[in-house]
Amino acid sequence: MNNGVKLFVSSTAPDSCFYVRLSIVKKDKTLGLRNEIDSICRTNKDFTPNCRDIGAA
User: Fold this and answer.
1) Which secondary-structure segment (H or E) carries 32?
2) Are 51 and 7 in contact (CB under 8 A)?
3) DSSP summary character for residue 28
4) How many whole angstroms separate alpha carbon 36 and alpha carbon 40?
5) 1-57 residue pLDDT tens
6) Distances (CA, A) of 7 to 21, 27, 48, 49
7) Residue 51, SS3?
8) Pairing verdict, β 52-56 and 6-10
9) Which residues are CB-contacts of 7 (< 8 A; sequence separation ≥ 6)?
């Protein structure tokens, strides 16, 4: 079982931030497991705009 999350990001800006919320939804309840705000350049120091890159949350 894979417990990781991969977010594929493309940007023309020198840096971009993204927000991820991981939740479980059961019947009429939602349980928020994790919220994360991160920047492409923090996770990938060699990010180049206009190239596809991967950030992990």
Assistant:
1) strand 29-39
2) no
3) T
4) 13
5) 556 667 777 788 888 888 888 889 998 899 998 888 888 888 778 887 876 545 544
6) 12, 27, 16, 16
7) coil
8) antiparallel
9) 18, 20, 54, 55, 56, 57
